[in-house]
Amino acid sequence: RGHLERKRFRALVAKRDLAARRMQGLLHIRRARIQLGELRQQRKALELKTTIYLQSWWRGQKARRYVRELFPLIKKRHQAALCIQGLGRIRRAKRKLQVLREAR
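The chain above was modelled as a monomer; its predicted structure follows.
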């Protein structure tokens, strides 16, 4: 009375130790899962960053290719615009000359 037999005491200590080990193991598992989640988030962030970079690079390539194909047309259009502007200047100059001749 007031004390446990040696066998029962050892059994209770063994159960307590086993329970403590189990709790520590579960705590390690929980910490490992938390760390795994953080690492997954970091990996996904890096993958997303890389994906966005590759997408923008690809869009740039496509745009440059498209512009390269259109460049001759743009050049011809620009030359035509310059020609029209030049003709307009000549026409204005002739009108001005005519007005000045009439004023004399």
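The chain has one helix and no strands.
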